[in-house]
Amino acid sequence: MKSLAGVLAALLEVPMLTEHLRRNVELAEALGQPTAERPLPSGVRPDIGRVTAALALAPSFAELIRFANAVDFRDLNEIELAYLEGVSLKTVRRWRTQGTGPEYRYEAGISYPIRWVWEWRERGRQKITAQKMGRGRRPLT
Description:
Elements: H1 2-32, H2 48-57, H3 61-66, H4 78-85, H5 89-98, E1 105-106, E2 110-111, H6 114-134
Antiparallel strand pairs: 1-2
Helix pairs in contact: 1-2, 4-5
């Protein structure tokens, strides 16, 4: 009976492992191909496409860090964060003043550590799901 339970548990993990492997392959392929879908503004590092691919495709922060030798994970500046998120610099600054954006450091200028950007994006993904559940008509009172 124990061996049957072990076999069933292993079979249930196969789709999850397959999905994990597929995402890792996608990430490795994306990191190997430089992309230039938009012109880079001044102040943005040339390999920002790799950072974008890593943040978008890595299933966890631990998986993201595995690619640290292929991707430059230095802190992002405001212009890089705006480019990465596809918003204007004004929007990034508004996020910072309203406290809705990722946490930042203010040492020799404003910078956004990759880990904090990752955590902010993860919180945002969860909020979107919760918001959709709460939408709809209000009950009549």
